[in-house]
Amino acid sequence: MAGFHTTDDLDAGQRLLVRIDVNAPIEDGAVQSTRRFERHAESIRELLDDGHALAIMAHQGRPGRDTFVTLEQHADVLSELVGEEISYVPSTFGEEAIEAITELESGTGVEDPGDAILLENVRMTDGELPEEPPEVKAQTEFVRTLANAFDAYANDGYSVAHRSHASIVGFPEVMDAYAGPVMADEYEYNTSVERREFDGDVTMVLGGTKAEDVIAAMDNLEDTVDTFLLGGVVGELFLRAKGHPVGHDLEDGPDLYDDNYEKNADLIDDVLERFGDRIETPVDLAYEDENGERAEHAVADVEEKTVSYMDVGHETVELYQPIVEDSAAVLVKGALGVFEDERFSYGTVEVLRAAGESDGFCVVGGGDTSRTVSMYGLEESGFDHLSIAGGAYLRALTGEGLVGVEALERAAERMDG
Ligand code: 3PG
Asked: Most C-beta atoms within 10 A of its C-beta, which of 152, 313, 315, 330?
């Protein structure tokens, strides 16, 4: 049981400063997935129906990246899903924000819900970044200004709770602090994996593009996981380490491989040496041929990488499926291919389908990976939990604490006594 208080413990009609995580994939400036929004919309509805007035904080992207945009469209998506106007305020703690916060009115309950606003992308705010200790973040002007304008702080952003940023660890140092519904639910499921004993093999399916997080998790999960099934960027990087001529950047392809390989080559070699016999890598890979069709070739036949790999091939799926089906627990993090493109969804979808249909315990994490389930009509009830977290989910699986959760726990201790 977690040592934090939750928003269920609050009396109705409070003024709350709430951190959520609707960080989404962005293409041409537009939000591509509403999966996180859907979960947070339920929380927001619940809080408004308890009469609370909400000033919501969230981030999008990182400075310098194309995904680093304002939250105007996020407010529209949330308003639509919550069924209530959530106005976007283009400021976080400037004059405009303070004015909007002052005007927020709380209510008494379902018949009289509170108001809600969404403040500007917190990563555009001085003091939010970089990662620093909580006591340093608590001293920022950002935290000192907003802390006085609310009755309490609530963190519902489990998926960003591994970042020691002001909106995560600063406010709970100086305010009464509560976990929101998404935070409490994700915490319960994701930490349960580390606490559980399984009566059989534990298999982990790993893919996606955030190779560094994944490799670090493999290093920590040596004693927990019996078999690792790899795909995506990490799959190619392991193939490269085993001596295959793949896992390189192509001149006209994305920069996903060379830097990642350079940074992680020693750890990959070490992991392969320690428990390489329990790590399965793709035996065939899929790419787009000159007619725009899906084509595949065996990894053993590749003499030089000349195409971008978009999925694992059919032989690989045939190798992975029975392992998944015979496991007592399957933990999924990241997609095996570019599942958004139907031509290259086969590997991700079929391995997920096998996991969902098997009798074992199954948790799917990785921001976007769980989106595959609804996108390709897989039966949601086949999965024990679909996490909207990526990095935080991996850390929870390895038993590593999350600074955002620890901050809520410290606040609870202070509040209790
Ligand atoms: C995520 O998408 O994993 C979280 O929102 C954290 O984002 P970050 O990796 O940019 O800190």
From this structure: 330
